[in-house]
Amino acid sequence: MIPLKDFAEIIPFLIITCAALLTMVIEITFKKNASIIYGFSIISVIAAIATSFTGLNKDQIIFNNYFHLTNVTIAFTVTILIGMLITIISAKSYLEKEDIDFGEFYSLLLFAIMGMFMMIWGNDILVIFIGLELMSICFYILAGFLRKRIKSNESALKYFLLGAFMTGFLLYGIALMYGVTGTTNLTILYSNPENFKSSIFVIGFGLYLIGFMFKMGIFPFHMWIPDVYDGAPTVVSGMMSTAGKIAAVATILPFILNVHLTEFQQVFSVLAVVTMLFGNVIALAQTNIKRLLAYSSISSAGYIMVGIASMNELATKGIAYYLVAYTFMQLGAFLVVALIEKKTADSKDYANLNLDSYKGLAKRNPWLATFMTLFLFSLAGIPPFAGFWGKYYLFYASIKAGLIWLSVIGIVLSLISIYYYLRVIVYMWFSEADTAQEKESVSVMSMTGLSLAILGTLIFGLFPNLFFNLFKFL
Protein backbone atom coordinates (compact mmCIF):
# COMPACT_ATOMS: atom_id res chain seq x y z
CA MET A 1 0.00 0.00 0.00
CA ILE A 2 1.26 3.47 -0.88
CA PRO A 3 1.66 5.77 2.19
CA LEU A 4 -0.36 8.98 2.12
CA LYS A 5 2.79 11.04 2.69
CA ASP A 6 4.04 9.88 -0.71
CA PHE A 7 1.18 11.75 -2.36
CA ALA A 8 2.34 14.95 -0.65
CA GLU A 9 5.71 14.56 -2.36
CA ILE A 10 4.23 14.44 -5.86
CA ILE A 11 1.86 17.41 -5.60
CA PRO A 12 3.23 19.02 -8.81
CA PHE A 13 2.51 15.80 -10.73
CA LEU A 14 -0.99 15.58 -9.24
CA ILE A 15 -1.69 19.22 -10.14
CA ILE A 16 -0.69 18.67 -13.77
CA THR A 17 -2.62 15.37 -13.95
CA CYS A 18 -5.81 16.93 -12.59
CA ALA A 19 -5.37 19.98 -14.83
CA ALA A 20 -4.94 17.81 -17.93
CA LEU A 21 -8.14 15.90 -17.16
CA LEU A 22 -10.12 19.00 -16.15
CA THR A 23 -9.19 20.86 -19.33
CA MET A 24 -10.88 18.09 -21.29
CA VAL A 25 -14.02 18.49 -19.17
CA ILE A 26 -13.92 22.28 -19.58
CA GLU A 27 -13.52 21.86 -23.35
CA ILE A 28 -16.71 19.78 -23.48
CA THR A 29 -18.63 22.09 -21.12
CA PHE A 30 -17.57 25.42 -22.63
CA LYS A 31 -17.28 24.65 -26.31
CA LYS A 32 -15.51 27.18 -28.53
CA ASN A 33 -14.20 29.05 -25.49
CA ALA A 34 -10.52 28.17 -25.28
CA SER A 35 -9.78 31.25 -23.15
CA ILE A 36 -10.99 29.50 -19.99
CA ILE A 37 -8.71 26.53 -20.64
CA TYR A 38 -5.88 28.93 -21.50
CA GLY A 39 -6.13 30.74 -18.17
CA PHE A 40 -6.64 27.52 -16.21
CA SER A 41 -3.56 25.94 -17.82
CA ILE A 42 -1.37 28.92 -16.91
CA ILE A 43 -2.54 28.84 -13.28
CA SER A 44 -1.98 25.07 -13.08
CA VAL A 45 1.59 25.24 -14.37
CA ILE A 46 2.43 28.14 -12.03
CA ALA A 47 1.04 26.10 -9.10
CA ALA A 48 3.13 23.10 -10.16
CA ILE A 49 6.28 25.25 -10.28
CA ALA A 50 5.59 26.72 -6.83
CA THR A 51 5.05 23.31 -5.21
CA SER A 52 8.05 21.68 -6.89
CA PHE A 53 10.55 23.33 -4.55
CA THR A 54 9.13 21.45 -1.55
CA GLY A 55 10.98 18.36 -2.79
CA LEU A 56 14.45 19.91 -2.51
CA ASN A 57 17.10 18.28 -0.28
CA LYS A 58 15.08 15.11 0.32
CA ASP A 59 16.55 12.54 -2.11
CA GLN A 60 13.81 9.98 -1.59
CA ILE A 61 12.38 6.95 -3.33
CA ILE A 62 8.59 6.85 -3.11
CA PHE A 63 5.54 5.09 -4.55
CA ASN A 64 6.83 1.57 -3.97
CA ASN A 65 10.18 2.38 -5.61
CA TYR A 66 8.58 3.74 -8.78
CA PHE A 67 9.59 7.41 -8.30
CA HIS A 68 12.96 8.85 -7.24
CA LEU A 69 13.15 12.54 -6.31
CA THR A 70 16.47 14.39 -6.03
CA ASN A 71 17.64 18.00 -6.38
CA VAL A 72 18.67 17.22 -9.95
CA THR A 73 15.27 15.78 -10.94
CA ILE A 74 13.53 18.77 -9.33
CA ALA A 75 15.81 21.14 -11.28
CA PHE A 76 14.95 19.44 -14.58
CA THR A 77 11.25 19.37 -13.67
CA VAL A 78 11.12 23.08 -12.85
CA THR A 79 13.03 23.89 -16.06
CA ILE A 80 10.46 22.01 -18.14
CA LEU A 81 7.56 23.65 -16.31
CA ILE A 82 9.01 27.14 -16.86
CA GLY A 83 9.51 26.38 -20.55
CA MET A 84 5.95 25.10 -20.82
CA LEU A 85 4.63 28.16 -18.97
CA ILE A 86 6.34 30.49 -21.46
CA THR A 87 4.98 28.36 -24.33
CA ILE A 88 1.39 28.44 -23.05
CA ILE A 89 1.48 32.17 -22.29
CA SER A 90 2.79 32.98 -25.78
CA ALA A 91 0.79 30.40 -27.73
CA LYS A 92 -2.68 31.97 -27.74
CA SER A 93 -1.97 34.84 -30.13
CA TYR A 94 -0.19 32.44 -32.50
CA LEU A 95 -3.05 29.93 -32.38
CA GLU A 96 -5.59 32.67 -33.05
CA LYS A 97 -3.52 33.94 -35.99
CA GLU A 98 -3.48 30.42 -37.45
CA ASP A 99 -7.18 29.75 -36.61
CA ILE A 100 -6.32 26.74 -34.44
CA ASP A 101 -7.10 28.12 -30.98
CA PHE A 102 -8.63 24.90 -29.66
CA GLY A 103 -8.77 23.82 -26.03
CA GLU A 104 -7.22 20.44 -26.75
CA PHE A 105 -3.93 22.19 -27.57
CA TYR A 106 -3.48 23.05 -23.91
CA SER A 107 -4.70 19.61 -22.82
CA LEU A 108 -2.05 17.96 -24.99
CA LEU A 109 0.66 20.18 -23.51
CA LEU A 110 -0.40 19.20 -19.99
CA PHE A 111 -0.51 15.49 -20.84
CA ALA A 112 2.97 15.87 -22.37
CA ILE A 113 4.17 17.36 -19.07
CA MET A 114 2.71 14.33 -17.27
CA GLY A 115 4.79 12.06 -19.48
CA MET A 116 7.92 14.12 -18.81
CA PHE A 117 7.33 13.90 -15.06
CA MET A 118 7.16 10.11 -15.32
CA MET A 119 10.35 10.00 -17.39
CA ILE A 120 12.39 12.23 -15.09
CA TRP A 121 11.06 10.94 -11.77
CA GLY A 122 10.76 7.32 -12.88
CA ASN A 123 12.76 4.75 -10.90
CA ASP A 124 11.52 1.87 -13.02
CA ILE A 125 12.25 1.35 -16.71
CA LEU A 126 8.60 0.55 -17.47
CA VAL A 127 7.40 3.76 -15.79
CA ILE A 128 9.96 5.67 -17.86
CA PHE A 129 8.77 3.95 -21.04
CA ILE A 130 5.11 4.77 -20.35
CA GLY A 131 6.05 8.40 -19.71
CA LEU A 132 8.07 8.53 -22.93
CA GLU A 133 5.18 7.18 -24.97
CA LEU A 134 2.70 9.58 -23.38
CA MET A 135 4.96 12.51 -24.21
CA SER A 136 5.62 11.22 -27.72
CA ILE A 137 1.95 10.71 -28.60
CA CYS A 138 1.19 14.29 -27.55
CA PHE A 139 4.11 15.53 -29.65
CA TYR A 140 2.93 13.59 -32.72
CA ILE A 141 -0.50 15.22 -32.50
CA LEU A 142 0.86 18.70 -31.78
CA ALA A 143 3.27 18.49 -34.73
CA GLY A 144 0.28 18.01 -37.04
CA PHE A 145 -1.97 20.53 -35.30
CA LEU A 146 -2.11 22.72 -38.42
CA ARG A 147 -4.26 20.14 -40.15
CA LYS A 148 -4.82 22.15 -43.34
CA ARG A 149 -1.11 22.47 -44.09
CA ILE A 150 0.74 19.76 -45.96
CA LYS A 151 4.00 20.55 -44.18
CA SER A 152 2.40 20.09 -40.77
CA ASN A 153 0.83 16.78 -41.78
CA GLU A 154 4.12 15.58 -43.23
CA SER A 155 6.01 16.52 -40.08
CA ALA A 156 3.55 14.64 -37.88
CA LEU A 157 3.66 11.53 -40.09
CA LYS A 158 7.46 11.53 -40.34
CA TYR A 159 7.84 12.05 -36.60
CA PHE A 160 5.35 9.27 -35.84
CA LEU A 161 6.89 6.71 -38.20
CA LEU A 162 10.48 7.35 -37.13
CA GLY A 163 9.44 7.58 -33.48
CA ALA A 164 7.65 4.22 -33.68
CA PHE A 165 10.72 2.70 -35.34
CA MET A 166 13.01 3.99 -32.59
CA THR A 167 10.63 2.68 -29.94
CA GLY A 168 11.45 -0.79 -31.24
CA PHE A 169 15.14 -0.23 -30.41
CA LEU A 170 14.18 1.02 -26.97
CA LEU A 171 11.94 -1.95 -26.18
CA TYR A 172 14.47 -4.48 -27.42
CA GLY A 173 17.10 -2.82 -25.24
CA ILE A 174 14.80 -3.01 -22.21
CA ALA A 175 14.14 -6.70 -22.93
CA LEU A 176 17.87 -7.49 -23.09
CA MET A 177 18.64 -5.61 -19.87
CA TYR A 178 15.74 -7.31 -18.11
CA GLY A 179 16.94 -10.69 -19.35
CA VAL A 180 20.33 -10.11 -17.69
CA THR A 181 19.25 -8.37 -14.48
CA GLY A 182 15.80 -9.90 -13.92
CA THR A 183 14.39 -6.51 -12.90
CA THR A 184 13.17 -3.22 -14.33
CA ASN A 185 13.62 -1.37 -11.02
CA LEU A 186 16.59 0.97 -11.27
CA THR A 187 17.52 0.80 -7.57
CA ILE A 188 17.90 -2.97 -7.75
CA LEU A 189 19.60 -2.75 -11.14
CA TYR A 190 22.23 -0.29 -9.87
CA SER A 191 22.93 -2.47 -6.81
CA ASN A 192 24.28 -5.34 -8.95
CA PRO A 193 27.19 -3.86 -10.95
CA GLU A 194 28.35 -7.36 -11.92
CA ASN A 195 25.50 -7.46 -14.43
CA PHE A 196 27.01 -4.47 -16.26
CA LYS A 197 29.91 -6.65 -17.43
CA SER A 198 27.58 -8.83 -19.50
CA SER A 199 27.89 -8.21 -23.25
CA ILE A 200 24.13 -8.71 -23.59
CA PHE A 201 23.52 -5.99 -21.00
CA VAL A 202 25.91 -3.64 -22.82
CA ILE A 203 24.06 -4.23 -26.11
CA GLY A 204 20.71 -3.69 -24.39
CA PHE A 205 22.00 -0.53 -22.74
CA GLY A 206 23.15 0.79 -26.12
CA LEU A 207 19.78 0.10 -27.75
CA TYR A 208 18.02 1.73 -24.79
CA LEU A 209 20.12 4.86 -25.24
CA ILE A 210 19.35 5.03 -28.96
CA GLY A 211 15.68 5.65 -28.18
CA PHE A 212 16.56 8.71 -26.11
CA MET A 213 19.27 9.96 -28.45
CA PHE A 214 16.54 10.10 -31.08
CA LYS A 215 14.55 12.50 -28.89
CA MET A 216 17.68 14.56 -28.21
CA GLY A 217 18.61 14.80 -31.89
CA ILE A 218 22.02 13.12 -31.68
CA PHE A 219 23.66 12.27 -35.02
CA PRO A 220 22.76 9.94 -36.78
CA PHE A 221 19.34 9.84 -35.08
CA HIS A 222 18.64 13.47 -35.91
CA MET A 223 17.04 13.01 -39.32
CA TRP A 224 13.53 13.97 -38.17
CA ILE A 225 14.38 17.30 -36.55
CA PRO A 226 14.72 19.73 -39.54
CA ASP A 227 11.53 18.60 -41.28
CA VAL A 228 9.45 18.27 -38.10
CA TYR A 229 10.52 21.63 -36.65
CA ASP A 230 9.94 23.26 -40.04
CA GLY A 231 6.47 21.79 -40.53
CA ALA A 232 5.09 21.88 -36.99
CA PRO A 233 3.39 25.01 -35.58
CA THR A 234 6.25 27.29 -34.56
CA VAL A 235 5.31 27.44 -30.86
CA VAL A 236 5.24 23.63 -30.88
CA SER A 237 8.67 23.49 -32.53
CA GLY A 238 10.08 25.67 -29.76
CA MET A 239 8.50 23.51 -27.09
CA MET A 240 9.72 20.22 -28.60
CA SER A 241 13.25 21.54 -29.05
CA THR A 242 13.47 22.44 -25.35
CA ALA A 243 11.13 20.42 -23.13
CA GLY A 244 11.46 17.22 -25.17
CA LYS A 245 15.25 17.42 -25.17
CA ILE A 246 15.38 18.12 -21.42
CA ALA A 247 13.13 15.14 -20.62
CA ALA A 248 15.32 12.78 -22.68
CA VAL A 249 18.58 14.05 -21.16
CA ALA A 250 17.23 14.01 -17.60
CA THR A 251 16.12 10.40 -18.06
CA ILE A 252 19.36 8.90 -19.35
CA LEU A 253 21.81 11.02 -17.33
CA PRO A 254 21.42 9.22 -13.95
CA PHE A 255 21.38 5.88 -15.80
CA ILE A 256 24.71 6.64 -17.46
CA LEU A 257 26.31 7.94 -14.25
CA ASN A 258 25.21 4.92 -12.20
CA VAL A 259 25.99 2.24 -14.77
CA HIS A 260 29.21 4.06 -15.73
CA LEU A 261 30.29 1.85 -18.60
CA THR A 262 33.65 3.40 -19.44
CA GLU A 263 33.71 1.68 -22.83
CA PHE A 264 30.89 4.03 -23.86
CA GLN A 265 32.93 7.17 -23.11
CA GLN A 266 34.73 7.17 -26.45
CA VAL A 267 31.46 6.41 -28.24
CA PHE A 268 29.79 9.38 -26.55
CA SER A 269 32.79 11.58 -27.39
CA VAL A 270 32.66 10.67 -31.09
CA LEU A 271 28.88 11.20 -31.17
CA ALA A 272 29.38 14.62 -29.56
CA VAL A 273 31.93 15.66 -32.21
CA VAL A 274 29.96 14.50 -35.25
CA THR A 275 26.72 15.98 -33.86
CA MET A 276 28.32 19.37 -33.20
CA LEU A 277 30.05 19.29 -36.58
CA PHE A 278 26.96 18.27 -38.55
CA GLY A 279 24.60 20.72 -36.84
CA ASN A 280 26.89 23.74 -37.15
CA VAL A 281 28.12 23.10 -40.69
CA ILE A 282 24.68 22.39 -42.19
CA ALA A 283 23.23 25.42 -40.37
CA LEU A 284 25.64 27.63 -42.34
CA ALA A 285 23.76 26.88 -45.57
CA GLN A 286 20.22 27.44 -44.26
CA THR A 287 18.02 30.24 -45.57
CA ASN A 288 14.91 29.21 -43.59
CA ILE A 289 14.99 30.48 -39.99
CA LYS A 290 13.16 27.47 -38.54
CA ARG A 291 15.51 25.03 -40.23
CA LEU A 292 18.47 27.11 -39.06
CA LEU A 293 17.23 26.85 -35.46
CA ALA A 294 16.59 23.13 -36.01
CA TYR A 295 20.20 22.48 -37.00
CA SER A 296 21.28 24.74 -34.15
CA SER A 297 19.27 22.44 -31.88
CA ILE A 298 21.19 19.45 -33.23
CA SER A 299 24.51 21.14 -32.47
CA SER A 300 23.23 21.92 -28.96
CA ALA A 301 22.58 18.21 -28.47
CA GLY A 302 26.24 17.72 -29.35
CA TYR A 303 27.31 20.12 -26.60
CA ILE A 304 25.17 18.16 -24.14
CA MET A 305 26.88 14.97 -25.29
CA VAL A 306 30.21 16.57 -24.33
CA GLY A 307 28.90 16.67 -20.76
CA ILE A 308 27.51 13.14 -20.95
CA ALA A 309 30.85 11.82 -22.24
CA SER A 310 32.55 13.34 -19.18
CA MET A 311 30.64 10.93 -16.90
CA ASN A 312 31.21 12.92 -13.70
CA GLU A 313 29.11 14.88 -11.21
CA LEU A 314 30.48 18.16 -12.52
CA ALA A 315 28.94 17.29 -15.88
CA THR A 316 25.53 16.83 -14.23
CA LYS A 317 25.66 20.40 -12.93
CA GLY A 318 26.90 21.69 -16.27
CA ILE A 319 24.20 19.88 -18.25
CA ALA A 320 21.48 21.07 -15.87
CA TYR A 321 22.65 24.68 -16.16
CA TYR A 322 23.03 24.50 -19.95
CA LEU A 323 19.51 23.13 -20.35
CA VAL A 324 18.08 25.96 -18.25
CA ALA A 325 19.92 28.53 -20.36
CA TYR A 326 18.98 26.68 -23.55
CA THR A 327 15.29 26.67 -22.60
CA PHE A 328 15.17 30.46 -22.33
CA MET A 329 17.25 31.33 -25.39
CA GLN A 330 15.99 28.65 -27.80
CA LEU A 331 12.35 29.02 -26.84
CA GLY A 332 12.66 32.81 -26.99
CA ALA A 333 14.11 32.65 -30.51
CA PHE A 334 11.24 30.44 -31.70
CA LEU A 335 8.70 32.81 -30.13
CA VAL A 336 10.15 35.72 -32.11
CA VAL A 337 9.91 33.58 -35.27
CA ALA A 338 6.27 32.80 -34.41
CA LEU A 339 5.47 36.52 -34.18
CA ILE A 340 7.15 37.37 -37.49
CA GLU A 341 5.71 34.35 -39.29
CA LYS A 342 2.75 34.90 -41.63
CA LYS A 343 0.68 32.57 -43.79
CA THR A 344 0.19 32.47 -47.53
CA ALA A 345 -2.95 33.86 -49.16
CA ASP A 346 -4.51 30.39 -49.38
CA SER A 347 -3.45 29.61 -45.77
CA LYS A 348 -1.83 26.38 -46.93
CA ASP A 349 1.77 27.25 -46.15
CA TYR A 350 3.98 29.37 -43.93
CA ALA A 351 5.36 32.74 -45.04
CA ASN A 352 8.08 35.07 -43.74
CA LEU A 353 10.33 32.20 -42.69
CA ASN A 354 13.07 33.08 -45.17
CA LEU A 355 16.01 34.95 -43.67
CA ASP A 356 15.31 37.82 -46.08
CA SER A 357 12.12 38.47 -44.10
CA TYR A 358 14.30 39.59 -41.19
CA LYS A 359 15.95 42.38 -43.17
CA GLY A 360 15.08 45.74 -41.67
CA LEU A 361 13.30 44.23 -38.65
CA ALA A 362 15.02 46.73 -36.34
CA LYS A 363 13.20 49.57 -38.13
CA ARG A 364 9.82 47.82 -38.16
CA ASN A 365 9.95 46.54 -34.59
CA PRO A 366 13.11 47.38 -32.62
CA TRP A 367 11.92 45.42 -29.58
CA LEU A 368 11.63 42.15 -31.49
CA ALA A 369 14.99 42.77 -33.16
CA THR A 370 16.61 43.44 -29.78
CA PHE A 371 15.11 40.32 -28.21
CA MET A 372 16.15 38.15 -31.15
CA THR A 373 19.67 39.58 -31.06
CA LEU A 374 20.06 38.75 -27.37
CA PHE A 375 18.72 35.22 -27.86
CA LEU A 376 21.09 34.59 -30.78
CA PHE A 377 24.07 36.02 -28.88
CA SER A 378 23.29 33.62 -26.05
CA LEU A 379 22.90 30.65 -28.41
CA ALA A 380 26.27 31.53 -29.93
CA GLY A 381 27.84 31.41 -26.48
CA ILE A 382 28.89 35.05 -26.33
CA PRO A 383 29.50 36.39 -22.78
CA PRO A 384 27.91 37.49 -20.54
CA PHE A 385 24.75 35.67 -21.63
CA ALA A 386 23.54 32.39 -20.14
CA GLY A 387 24.56 30.37 -23.20
CA PHE A 388 28.22 31.24 -22.61
CA TRP A 389 28.21 29.90 -19.07
CA GLY A 390 26.31 26.80 -20.15
CA LYS A 391 29.01 25.89 -22.66
CA TYR A 392 31.74 26.88 -20.20
CA TYR A 393 30.50 24.43 -17.56
CA LEU A 394 30.18 21.62 -20.12
CA PHE A 395 33.67 22.11 -21.53
CA TYR A 396 35.12 22.51 -18.03
CA ALA A 397 33.59 19.17 -16.99
CA SER A 398 35.10 17.61 -20.11
CA ILE A 399 38.56 18.95 -19.26
CA LYS A 400 38.27 17.62 -15.70
CA ALA A 401 37.41 14.21 -17.16
CA GLY A 402 40.63 14.26 -19.18
CA LEU A 403 38.87 14.91 -22.50
CA ILE A 404 40.78 18.08 -23.36
CA TRP A 405 40.69 17.30 -27.08
CA LEU A 406 36.90 17.12 -26.97
CA SER A 407 36.65 20.53 -25.32
CA VAL A 408 38.98 22.07 -27.91
CA ILE A 409 36.90 20.69 -30.79
CA GLY A 410 33.71 21.87 -29.08
CA ILE A 411 35.05 25.40 -28.67
CA VAL A 412 36.18 25.57 -32.31
CA LEU A 413 32.81 24.33 -33.59
CA SER A 414 31.02 26.74 -31.27
CA LEU A 415 32.98 29.59 -32.88
CA ILE A 416 31.70 28.44 -36.30
CA SER A 417 28.12 28.87 -35.08
CA ILE A 418 28.73 32.57 -34.48
CA TYR A 419 28.68 33.13 -38.26
CA TYR A 420 25.14 31.94 -38.95
CA TYR A 421 23.76 33.66 -35.86
CA LEU A 422 25.48 36.94 -36.79
CA ARG A 423 24.08 36.69 -40.32
CA VAL A 424 20.54 36.97 -38.93
CA ILE A 425 21.58 39.84 -36.65
CA VAL A 426 23.18 41.73 -39.56
CA TYR A 427 20.01 41.26 -41.62
CA MET A 428 17.87 42.68 -38.80
CA TRP A 429 19.98 45.74 -38.03
CA PHE A 430 22.03 46.62 -41.11
CA SER A 431 20.03 45.46 -44.15
CA GLU A 432 17.07 47.00 -45.91
CA ALA A 433 14.02 44.88 -46.67
CA ASP A 434 13.87 43.79 -50.33
CA THR A 435 10.10 44.32 -50.38
CA ALA A 436 7.70 46.26 -48.18
CA GLN A 437 7.05 44.30 -44.99
CA GLU A 438 4.01 44.59 -42.76
CA LYS A 439 4.85 45.75 -39.23
CA GLU A 440 4.67 42.89 -36.74
CA SER A 441 2.08 43.26 -33.98
CA VAL A 442 2.82 41.79 -30.57
CA SER A 443 0.07 40.98 -28.07
CA VAL A 444 0.47 41.62 -24.35
CA MET A 445 0.69 37.90 -23.54
CA SER A 446 3.24 37.28 -26.29
CA MET A 447 5.36 40.12 -24.93
CA THR A 448 4.99 38.61 -21.45
CA GLY A 449 6.32 35.27 -22.68
CA LEU A 450 9.19 36.95 -24.50
CA SER A 451 10.01 39.04 -21.43
CA LEU A 452 10.22 35.91 -19.26
CA ALA A 453 12.55 34.31 -21.79
CA ILE A 454 14.82 37.35 -22.01
CA LEU A 455 14.88 37.77 -18.22
CA GLY A 456 15.99 34.16 -17.82
CA THR A 457 18.68 34.60 -20.46
CA LEU A 458 20.04 37.75 -18.81
CA ILE A 459 19.65 36.86 -15.13
CA PHE A 460 21.27 33.41 -15.38
CA GLY A 461 23.95 34.92 -17.59
CA LEU A 462 24.84 37.75 -15.22
CA PHE A 463 24.39 35.64 -12.08
CA PRO A 464 25.27 32.03 -13.02
CA ASN A 465 25.63 30.92 -9.39
CA LEU A 466 21.98 31.80 -8.81
CA PHE A 467 20.95 28.55 -10.49
CA PHE A 468 23.24 26.38 -8.36
CA ASN A 469 22.23 28.14 -5.16
CA LEU A 470 18.56 27.85 -6.09
CA PHE A 471 18.74 24.08 -6.45
CA LYS A 472 21.43 23.62 -3.79
CA PHE A 473 23.89 21.79 -6.04
CA LEU A 474 26.86 23.39 -4.27
Distance between the termini: 36 Å
Determine Rg (CA atoms, Å). 21 Å
Total helical segments: 20
Shape: globular
Give the helix/strand class: mainly alpha
Please report the total strand number as a whole number: 4
- Main beta sheet, described? 2 strands, antiparallel
How would you sum up this structure, described in words?
The chain is mostly helical. The chain has a domain at 261-474. It is 74% helix and 2% strand. It is built from 20 helices and four strands. The strands form two sheets. Strands 1-2 form a two-stranded antiparallel sheet. Strands 3-4 form a two-stranded antiparallel ribbon. Strand 1 (60-62) and strand 2 form a beta hairpin. Helix 4 (71-97) runs antiparallel to helix 11 and helix 5 (103-121) runs antiparallel to helix 6. It is globular. The chain starts with a helix and ends with a helix. The model has no long low-confidence stretch (mean pLDDT 85).
Secondary-structure topology with pairs:
Layout: H1 4-9, H2 11-29, H3 34-52, E1 60-62, E2 67-69, H4 71-97, H5 103-121, H6 125-143, H7 150-181, H8 186-190, H9 199-216, H10 225-231, H11 234-259, H12 265-283, H13 289-310, H14 313-340, E3 342-343, E4 350-351, H15 361-364, H16 366-380, H17 386-400, H18 404-430, H19 444-462, H20 465-470
Helix pairs in contact: 2-3, 2-5, 3-4, 3-5, 4-5, 4-11, 4-14, 4-19, 5-6, 5-11, 6-7, 6-11, 7-9, 7-10, 9-11, 10-11, 10-13, 11-13, 11-14, 12-13, 12-18, 13-14, 13-17, 13-18, 14-16, 14-17, 14-19, 16-18, 17-18, 17-19
